[in-house]
Prior knowledge:
The chain folds into 2 domains: 5-200, 2-enoyl-CoA Hydratase, Chain A, domain 1, CATH 3.90.226.10; 204-249. It is built from 10 helices and 10 strands. The longest helix has 20 residues, at 75-94. The protein is of the alpha/beta class.
Amino acid sequence: MYNNILLEQKGQILIIRINRPAQLNALNKSTLEELHQALAAGEEDSKTGVIILTGSGEKSFVAGADIKEFADFTIFQGGELAMNGQKTVFSFLENLSKPVIAAVNGFALGGGLELAMAAHIRIASSNARMGLPEVSLGVIPGYGGTQRLTQLVGRGKANEMVFTAGMIRADEALSWGLVNYVVEPEDLLVKAEEIASKILNNSSSAIASAIRAINAHFEDGVNGYDTEIEEFGKCFGTKDFKEGTTAFLDKRKPNFRN
């Protein structure tokens, strides 16, 4: 079904691997289309509760976009490229109702780092290297990189990363708040699955509400507190709320039918 990605279902965990090792898993148009399809299918699949996104091999998560595809683009085509990519993959991923964990193995550059930043949680292998090198090509990050990087690490660090086009090590990314954990390469998926398993113990409907409330904080013109109040209220009408509160009062573990 897919030419550029591999799917693996492990219980309620869907693992999506970008699989273009000869190109260091660079994102081209067809890979972005396949990612959208796989993410949309995971969102709709009742068997999937958490998605893990990673790259094939240990060298690269995603080493950027496939530059040869857009080297001759006009201003209009460049704008469309960014708009379509953000809409169908990066913002789409960020707004999924199911948590996405980026397991960053090796290089995460340009569009690769932007993809990881769109995920809800990021784990890096100790050999990971991250950066936004676009200005060295005469362009800027176009898949939400300037916005999400600033949200995650602050304006000063974001300016430094973008302006210098340099790479940072995994330990630097951890200290800056760009990733949640750094582990050895052989432990990367183990850690991602460990976090996924903890998530799966909880209410999927409440997690979906939490994602919407947290994301609302970063939306222009949206009052995140109002969204939180709305989502909080909605929880009271769910089966998970009834089960969770009943289980608490009965002093037992809840049995969420996720």
